[in-house]
C-alpha cells in the first residue's frame, strides 16, 4: 500500500501539505515549502513535520473540546435511560396485569432512590442522612423511608451508572467524552430512569390499556400526558359539605367536584390552541357558558348523555333577543337558569334557527373531544359518551323561503342616489340635503361599493390596508388576506374566515372611475396603514355627545353608517325581505354578487374564486392552478371580463368627485339619519 508522506511537488521544489481534521469548523489545506529539490531530504523533513503536526493537533483538540452537552444530546441520553428502565419496570405488564397498592409504592421508592444518587457524586463513600432528607419530605412514612434505605443499599447504588456506561453512551451519540460531559450524561440518564418509574405506575390506566400494549405506549409522551391529566382531575379528598354531595352518573373514570364553569377558561384556551382558531369575539365562550348555565353548572362527573338533548330543548325555547351576559356576572346568566322563564315557545320571528343551534353544538363537540381525555374520560378508557354532534338538527332549505334575500339592481340604484354619494352635509348630516353639498369619502362611501362590485363581506371590506391595493399593473387588483388590522390579539395576523377567503380581486372599472386609487393614496399620505382608520382607532370611537360606538371594524361601520343607509333606502324603496321579515342586509350583497354571476356560461370555479368559497370536487380544488400555470394577469383579466359582462352598473348616476374630501377622523363614517327618519328608534319601519 502506498504510504502517505504529505509531500507534493511544485516545479522543482517539494512542499509539505496537510489539513486539519474534518470535524473542525474551518478545514482547509496548509502548504509549507521545504526549500529542497532532493527527494530523500524532502521525506526526512516531511516525517519530522508530520510528528509535530500530530502533536499540535492533539493539543488544539484538547483545548477546543467542549465540556458540556447540547440540549439534543441531553434529550437523547434522557430517552435512553427512560427506555432502558421502562423495559425493566414493565417486563411483566403485558403478561400479567398488576393489581394492588404495592406497585405504585415500589415505583415511588425506586424513583426517589434514583433521585438520591443523581444528587450524589459517583465517588461518594457512603450514604448519609443528608442525602435522604434532600429528597423525602414530611409526607413519607417511616415504612417508606426504611424501604428507600433498603433500595439504596441493595439495588440502587451511586456506582450503578458507571463511567464506562456513560462513556459508551456519549460515543454512541457522537458527543465528546470528558469529565464535564460524563457528569451531565450521568444526570440525564438518571433523570430518564426516574421518569420511567413514574410512568410505570400508569401501566394499568384505562388510556394505556386501550392501546393494547400499555408497556410499549408508556413511551408515547402525549398518551402519558393525557393519563396524568385525567388522574389530576380526581380529587385526593373531596370536601364533604352537603353542597358537594351531588349525584355522580358513574359514566366516567373519575369522580370530581370541579364544576363545568371552574374549568371553562382553560377548556376555552385549549380549544383555540389545539384547532388553531382565531379569536371570535367571545362566541365560543358564550356557547360554553350557555351550556353550563342551562345544565345547572354541575360537577363534571355528574354530567351524562341525557344532558345534551335537555340542553337542546331549552336552548330552542330561548328567544333570539335574550341578553345572555356573562355566567354568574351579568345579563340573564347572572342568575341560575329557570325553566319557567322559557315555558312558552317564542314568536316565530324570535325563534332560534336550527342552524344556530347546530353551530353551538359544533363548538361543544370540539370541547367534548378535549374533555373525553380528562374529566369525561369513560370508564372503558376510550370513546366519547358526550356526543353533541348526534343532537344536531336537520336543516331543510326551502327555495321558496330562503334565509336571506339579495339586493336587486333597483334597490342598489336607490341606495347610491342617497346624498352620501351625490353630495350632502358633513358629519351626522351625510344623508341630508345641504346648501353646500359635498361628497366625503370614507368607510360609509366605499364599503357599500366593495360589497356591490366585489362581493366582500363586511369585515373583509372594513379591514383592508393600503398595501393590499396594486394599481400600477395591467389589471389593477387588491388582496383579501389576513393582516394586523383585523388581528384579535394584536400579535397574530387574522381576518380570514377560512383559507379560501384569501384571494386577489380585480378592481371593477366603476371603482376606478370613482377614484379608489386617489382615496387609498390620500389615506396612506395621512400615515395610516388601514384605509378606514375611523373603524379601528380609539380616537374615532367617541361619537356625538360622548356616546361611544362599537369596538372596531365592521360592527362600528354598521352602527355609525350602514343601519342609517339601509333605513334611508327602505324609506324610498322598501327593502326585499324573507317570509319571516328579515330584510336584505349587508351580507345580502354577497348573495347579489353570486346571483348576478351565476350565468350558465360562467364556471362555478370562477364564482367560487370571486366569492372566496371553497372549490368543489377534486379537479377544481386540487388540480386547477390556472393563475400559476398561465399567470396571475390572465386569470385576473378573465375574471374582470366576467364581472363587467354580468354585473349591472348601478352607480352610473354617481358623480366622480373632483378631489378626495376627508373629514376629521373622529367624524368620518358618521352619517346620521335621513330627513324625517330616526333609524335608531324605528329602523326600516
Approximate strand percentage: under 5%
* Rounded Rg: 37 Å
Overall helicity: 40-55%
Number of helices: 26
Uncertain stretches of 5 or more adjacent residues: 93-102, 233-246
- The count of strands amounts to 6
Average pLDDT confidence is 83
From the coordinates shown, what is the CATH architecture of the largest domain? Answer: Orthogonal Bundle
Number of domains: 4
Descriptive overview:
There is one protein chain. The protein is mostly helical and 685 residues long. It folds into 4 domains: 7-64, no CATH class; 71-201, no CATH class; 247-391, no CATH class; 409-646, hpI Integrase, Chain A. It is built from 26 helices and 6 strands. The protein has helices at 39-64, 71-89, 102-118, 129-133, 142-154, 163-172, 179-200, 206-209, 214-217, 221-232, 264-275, 283-294, 307-317, 354-371, 409-415, 419-422, 443-454, 458-462, 509-513, 516-525, 553-572, 588-597, 604-611, 618-623, 626-630, 632-646, and strands at 7-10, 13-19, 29-33, 469-470, 477-480, 503-506. Residues 93-102 and 233-246 have low confidence and may be disordered.
